Amino acid sequence: MPSGTTPHVAARIKSFTYAIRNIVVEAKKIEATGRPVRYLNIGDPLPFGFKTPPHLIDAVLKAMRDGHNGYTASVGVESARQAVSAEFERRGMPVSPDRVILTSGTSEGIELTLGALADAGDEVLVPTPTYPLYTAVLGKLGARAVFYRTDPSNGWLPDLDDMKRLVTPATRAIVVIDPNNPTGAVYPEAAKRAIIDIADRTGVPILADEVYADLGFDGPTTLLGSLAPDAPIISYSSLSKAYLAPGWRAGWLGVGRSDRLDDVLAAIKKLADGRLCSPGPMQFGIEAALNGDRSHQREFVRELRVRAELTTKRLSAIPGMTCVEPKAAFYAMPGVALPPGKTDEDFVLGLLRSKGILCVYGSGFGMAANLGHFRVVFLAPPDQLEKIYSDIGEFTGEFLRQS
Ligand SMILES: Cc1ncc(COP(=O)(O)O)c(C=O)c1O
Questions:
Q1: Per-residue pLDDT for 243 more than 90?
Q2: For residues 125 and 204, what is the distance between their CA atoms, to the nearest angstrom?
Q3: Residue 60 burial (C-beta neighbours within 10 Å; 0-12, 13-18, 19+)
Q4: How many Å apart are CA 226 and CA 222, to the nearest integer?
Q5: CB of 131 closer than 6 A to ligand 1?
Q6: Which residue is closest in CA terms to ligand 1's atom 7?
Q7: What is the mean pLDDT of the chain?
Q8: What is the pLDDT of residues 342-380, one digit of tens each?
Q9: In sequence order, what are the residues at sequence separation of 6 or more whose Cβ sits closer than 8 angstroms to the Cβ of residue 143?
Q10: Largest Cα–Cα distance of the chain, in whole Å?
Q11: For residue 249, which atom of ligand 1 is closest to its CA?
Q12: 268-274 LR contacts (CB < 8 Å, sep 24+)
């Protein structure tokens, strides 16, 4: 390469975008001017004072001290796979330990599965709004995210007719995120059964992202795979959210017992071999989490419910703004009635520059930019949220008046 030229960057990188982190660049510019920024962009409970349960930390430290610092089997350590299998069984989804794979978070499980299922040009049904990892990974694979609508006027539930219509011979998977990020929706059993029916009839597998299943405000939610154990369903979760250890990158996937999924399971295992293993000592945290005390979850969910109610009440009261009440986790997806020509990004960047509050615009989750949605992460303490929502109210008034 002649000196002075720069290395080629793969063209597919252009289609790999992840707004939740990309937008931080704008916040850093504000901080560089000496103004503080309140970050409501990333779903990590730790910076807001929530703590990883000590018995999980003890288990990981013990694993390190006991010498479990080498590579593990690429599918993960056996005792943790058994713990995950037992957890699936307890929740009514039969998944034997040999159909469990430990992954670097839910994220890697998703990436391995999409890699196993979709060739370039293939289609995967993804909700809009979606957690952006799906579109990012599909972009990298050269596969196509085909969006099915979820409806804010119906509690952000999936539009099942839309979903049915969108399944084609090129569809390789249907992604279902329940409970949902970014909307906070929990799907009722009837909706889950209807989605399962589509998958079962077409043979297209469901990728059930259930990373928030323990954070339902009315109790843990029903796993899709428990409603139809023989339907083609793969379930994903991790220690990141309900066990307050997102940095550990400790997750798992469970492939339902249907033999229709055997080839996919083999393909995922093949890809998992290539990355050697997920972080070894953290796998021992999974056993401790699933077999140990979960009282921290009751407290966490109680705190989240208070914040969710506050969020809905305060944001819905802002003229020009609507907010559907979240039923789980720590996200809400309010919407502003934008003036013609304005985008959700205009609103979010304006809010950042005017008030030093960082949210993520709805188009970062695959929504149309003129719909005016943005995502709020409501993990901050209620007194801070009160101030933040007052500032959002003030800014919204100014934004709508000026435009
Ligand atoms: C719906 C959803 N899936 C997956 C992830 C990634 O989780 P993990 O830390 O387990 O990779 C997140 C993180 O915010 C998420 O919201």
A1: yes
A2: 10
A3: buried
A4: 7
A5: yes
A6: 106
A7: 95
A8: 999 999 999 999 999 999 999 999 999 999 999 999 999
A9: 114, 118, 119, 120, 121, 122, 123, 124, 172
A10: 63
A11: 9
A12: 268/101, 268/112, 268/113, 268/116, 269/74, 269/75, 269/101, 270/116, 271/112, 271/115, 271/116, 272/74, 272/75, 272/101, 272/103, 272/112, 273/74
Alpha carbons 168 and 201: distance in angstroms, whole number: 12
- Name the helix (H) or strand (E) containing 206: strand 206-209
pLDDT at 13: 78
Taking the CA of residue 42 as reference, the ligand 1 atom at the shortest distance is: 14
Is the distance from CB of 97 to CB of 120 less than 8 angstroms? no
Tell me what pLDDT residue 52 has: 98
43 touches ligand 1 (CB under 6 Å):
yes
CA of 112 to the centre of ligand 1 (A): 14
Question: Helices 24-32 and 344-355 meet at what angle, rounded to 10?
Answer: 30
pLDDT tens, position by position, 17-76: 767 677 888 899 999 999 999 999 889 999 999 999 999 999 999 999 999 999 999 999
Burial 36-58 (b: 16+ CB within 10 A, else e): ebbbbbebbbeebebebbeebee
Q: Which of 223, 226, 175, 222 is nearest to 198 (CA)?
A: 175
